[in-house]
């Protein structure tokens, strides 16, 4: 299974959108970069589905363009005019060559989900490796309307409970991809560190 970040060259604020190649070709989030559909087309002429982690604009702004270009199925937890399949906690979705479990992870967004297989975690914004606030284990912001630090903490705890032991790679909505380090941090370590930081209740982005 090959995973390609397709918004890496964006000049606007966007999430990381990932093209998952394999038996079932999937785009995880659509991002906000103009022309993302053309980048996808550089790698495949067929897209089976788009799977949305949550519906903040930096994750779905270009969904219309992707759907117009490829006519894929669209999976999302929350209602959306283009959604063809509802995601719910515990569902399974085939992406690439692997089966991913849907884990409902609200707090940063009410409709947020993460997707985890035996080896790979697509975390959206609930957990990221580095994002300018923390360099080695951070979490989605919770200071805007409709967000909840307490609920995000619960989501991180749930994710840890349901994280398979063999997960080796973290593909987050922002920041760098993280893979387990030899004799160093694992994906689980990164999530546990982010959870500790979230529990400190400090502002993620202090003023000034």
What attributes does this structure have?
208 residues, Metallo-beta-lactamase, Chain A, 6-stranded mixed β-sheet
List the helices and strands and how they pair.
Blueprint: E1 2-5, E2 18-21, E3 26-28, H1 36-41, E4 49-51, H2 57-60, H3 63-70, E5 73-76, E6 85-86, E7 92-95, E8 98-104, E9 113-116, E10 120-124, E11 127-128, E12 138-139, H4 149-161, E13 169-172, E14 178-179, H5 187-199
Parallel strand pairs: 3-4, 4-5, 5-6, 10-13
Antiparallel strand pairs: 1-2, 2-3, 7-8, 8-9, 9-10, 11-12, 13-14
Helix pairs in contact: 4-5
Q: What is the CATH superfamily classification?
A: Ribonuclease Z/Hydroxyacylglutathione hydrolase-like
Q: What is the general shape?
A: globular
* Helix/strand class: alpha/beta
Main sheet specs: 6 strands, mixed
Helix count, DSSP H or I runs of 4 or more residues? 5
Quick one: how many beta strands? 14
Low-confidence runs (pLDDT<50, min 5 residues)? Answer: none
Mean pLDDT: 96
Order of helices and strands: EEEHEHHEEEEEEEEHEEH
């Amino acid at each position: 299974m090959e995973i390609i970040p397709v918004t890496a060259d964006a000049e606007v604020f966007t999430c990381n959108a990932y093209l998952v190649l394999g038996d079932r070709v999937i785009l995880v989030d659509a991002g906000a970069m103009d022309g993302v559909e053309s980048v996808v087309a550089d790698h495949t002429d067929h897209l089976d589905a788009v799977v949305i982690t949550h519906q903040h604009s930096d994750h779905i702004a270009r969904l219309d363009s992707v759907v117009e270009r490829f006519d894929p199925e669209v999976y999302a937890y929350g209602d959306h005019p283009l959604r063809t399949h509802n995601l719910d906690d515990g569902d399974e979705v085939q992406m690439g060559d692997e089966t991913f479990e849907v884990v409902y992870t609200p707090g940063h967004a009410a409709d947020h989900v993460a997707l985890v297989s035996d080896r790979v975690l697509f975390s959206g914004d609930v957990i990221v490796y580095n994002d300018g606030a923390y360099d080695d284990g951070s979490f989605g912001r919770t200071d805007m309307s409709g967000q909840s630090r307490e609920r995000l903490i619960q989501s991180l705890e749930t994710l840890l409970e349901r994280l398979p032991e063999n997960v080796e790679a973290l593909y987050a909505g922002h920041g760098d991809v993280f893979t387990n380090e030899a004799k160093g941090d694992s994906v689980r370590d990164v999530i546990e560190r982010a959870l500790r930081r979230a529990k400190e209740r400090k502002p993620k982005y202090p003023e000034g």
